[in-house]
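Late entry, evening session. Most of the bench is empty. Finally got around to the prediction I had been postponing all week. Sequence below, unchanged from the version circulated by S.P.
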Amino acid sequence: MGVAALYRALAIGTMGVVAPIAALSVLVPVGAGIVGGDTPGPLLVAGMIVAVIGTVLASGPEVRGAERGGVRPIVLALVAAVGFGVNNLAVAWGSAHDVSATLLANVLTTLLVYLIAVAALRVVPRAAGRNLVGIIAIEVLGFLANLCFAVASTSGMLSVVAVCASVFPAVTVVLGWWLLKERLARIQLLGIVLVLSGVAVVAVSQ
């Protein structure tokens, strides 16, 4: 549901507004980790805060484009944030008992929900050639990302792992600049620097 909400929000809204809101998904596992007993030190907290701020800035907020699509893309971005946050929290909690079973349940549940949605909406999926290869690649990378998150959550503080995993928008921005030759705004460059600095502080503080 989080992925579907994000894709729809990106389709009808402004990416620079939707992406930072979706990146706030980190607040769910971070909050749960702190409530659950995580006690990060001052330096670690500072690094986490810097990394989160950098992630939002790297997404390139475009406040002037917020009117595109009205309030709907913002609501969908919030749904995506909650969906991603709860998913990461569930993966972390499940992985504390069994990583394999958690990831298997995650994949099967996603497939079941998708099939139900397709049947209810009577939509026939169409993908062939390069599109199909791209879709398969997305799923493989997504599974590997969940696997890494699951394993990391079993050996470190959930709040710290969640922050480190949340910096993916900065990676997307860099790849867009490198592969698609997209131009980066100054605020995005600042965000990337903050992300790298924050993650470095987190790593040193461990």
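Two things to note before I forget:
The chain has a mean pLDDT of 81.
Residues 2-205 form one domain.
Will write this up properly tomorrow.
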